[in-house]
Design brief:
- By secondary structure, this protein is an alpha+beta fold.
- The chain is built from 14 helices and 11 strands.
- It has 2 domains: 190 residues, no CATH class; 136 residues, no CATH class.
- α1 crosses α2.
- The radius of gyration is 32 Å and the shape is elongated.
Amino acid sequence: MFVYFRLLSESFRFATNALRSNKLRTLLSLLGVTIGIFSIIAVLAAVDSLDRKITKDLSSLDKNTIYLMNRSFGPSDIPRWKREQFPNVKYSEYIYLKSSMTNTDQMGFQIFTGRESIKYESKTVSDVNMVPVSYEFIDIQGLEFEEGRFYTESEANSAATVVVLGKDIAVSLFGDSEAIGKKVRLYGQRFTVIGVLTKKGDGLSIGNNNDTSAFIPVNFARQLYGDNNKNSVNVIIFKPQKDVDMGAYKAEITQKLRNIRGLKDGEIDDFFINVFSGFTDLIDVIISKMNLVGWVISGFSLLVGGFGIANIMFVSVKERTNLIGIQKSLGAKNRFILFQFLFEAIILSVIGGIIGLFMVWIIALILTKALDFDFILGLGNILLGTGLAAFIGLISGILPAISASKLDPVEAIRTGM
């Protein structure tokens, strides 16, 4: 065992000597491995960080939450021209389903609509994500407040001019002063600020972030836009009770809505029942495809890096032919020479991989500060990058190591003289 530790030590010394004596050649050879490891680990770290961020943002939502609307979260077999003819769900349908559905914890009504500007005195915040929702939304999404409250059932039903602001909107309008009770101008009217949400952080989150959103009673938006506005999408949100049979629950929604709309047997549903777990599954598919694309693109860099390591090892064998002959004449066995060059290739490749990992770590620190997004280089990705670099070194160094181990000692000494 001691012999192999000594062999590893000598291989590391040979590798570092190669780096010092042939800096440019070694740098160019390691560049492919460095870029390959950097590309793969950067993509994996970015995707892992994004996945962690999405999971955190969506953790307050029950995966069984259902969105009833005229659009589908994912691909559909129904032709696009036919889907575009599907009517918006109506507030009256929401009222009926709320009174008739069983096994339901919460139900809410939301309108996806355009962005607006909010003014306070001389300050204006543009491109605000407006979220007209019914009062149940606070329990469905689990909103958290830094100050104030959400609007009540009576305020929601009466279309009261009250608004709940995301943290970023509140800071932009009021700075460090208290927001509750302030009057802001929105839709040409004065709204009273009754609540400010806790900041969640934006970064690279999916969809619209609550920090840059404003929540108003859905009935105000209905009075403004009507129930059949083509520029808005109505949604009925269901939060079923725990342990409910989702198949039976969806079937109940389907049957009741078909009855309301008078759909006959044989006619297709003109609505979509989107389960939130389907959306998260779609995100998982997208993330896995991003990982795959990263591996494919980075694989070419690793391939080039592998050829670079193989090239430098063949040159190293050529330069040390005389030394190999002397080692063999003094009793060094073939496997000793084989392991010596194999370890050297692995060490060179790992050095390139470590440089790539260091670059990812530096960029992760920069992006975390610049984007207010936790870009994390996890231990798993560090071990993966190091192991992958070692594997590339192993594969690239096999042929040069075998050629070195098979050299005839006499011929090797003669050739090297």
